[in-house]
Amino acid sequence: MKAVRRPQFWFNLAMWVMTLVISSLLIQLGALVMSDVPTAGKRISQADFVNADQLADVEHRIVSNDKALLNTQRDIEDAEFVLSSRTLDYTNQRASFENWVKTRSATEADSQNAEVVARAQGIEELKIAERDAQRIIEDLRVTERSLLRTQQDLRTEEYAINDASFEPYQKARSREVLKVFGLRLALTLPLLLISGWFVAKKRGSQYWPVYRGFVVFSLFAFFVELVPYLPSYGGYVRNVVGILLALLFAHFVIKGMNRYLARKRSEEQRPESEKRKAIAYETAVKKISEGVCPSCDRRFGAVKLRKGEKPDEDPVDFCVHCGFCLFDRCTNCNTRENSFFKFCGSCGTPSENDPSAQVS
Ligand SMILES: [Zn+2]
Ligand SMILES: [Zn+2]
């Protein structure tokens, strides 16, 4: 059973809608501000830290070395073609000479010796030409090998130049991460402090729904605009911040619980008429209908209720924990009623327990 007035319910709902509208407008505004913060701009890259002159020089030398290598390899191909054709010439001439010598020796005398010598000399010249071609190829191969070695050396040099930029880049990167985080912290921390103050001081205010919008906004800013930018340092910062937040949360929850218990204990000491005045009418009606004592916040039923059974049907009239009067009887018709009801539900007689109706 709820004793809240119907318009009150709609008013609360409308106030929540207003809270969300205010916070979403603030969130959009905050996103605009964050996107205009200069640090959100260009990210530095490792290429910014390479010695550009050295690198350009090495790359230039690599290109010209590659060109020379390609030319040498083409020269080798050409020279191999020349060699194979000279080898072919030599073997053909030699074969025909050997045939000629065989046929000649069977029929003729040494009268043609001069011709034999001349032809043998021709073959010898072909052999020399073949060797020359081979030598050219060998020289080219030596050049090729040295060019390949130079290529390897240049690549190693290029790698070393790029590698040297890694450390300064890493340092600059972590500095930048820290700077971005610092700026974001400088923008977000005041919001959190202000909303912490609102929560502490303005919760009872008529304009709490407006302040609540600001609190929602600052929480959003904290989790979306700040937390993802925490520098990690291998997870240290993130874990430490998480632990600190958890401790802070536990601290406030424990403190709040202790305050609540102390308040309840001091309330229980007071006389019942004072207790009744301290409890809001709506809260009391709701709590009693749910089977909870509005004074000590404990379940008052002597037995656990079965499903479908209402606490009103429980025969308990007084809280078994603190003795608080939960149900009483109408002075006129003796009907059993919730002790907070202001009028008897059967005959309409004003209730005696109603603090506002009590006349001393
Ligand atoms: Zn009680
Ligand atoms: Zn009555």
TrEMBL record:
TM ranges: 181-199, 211-230, 236-254
Top-level taxonomic group: Bacteria
UniProt KW Transmembrane helix keyword: yes
Keyword entries, A-Z: Membrane, Transmembrane, Transmembrane helix
Protein name: Double zinc ribbon
Organism: Shimia sagamensis
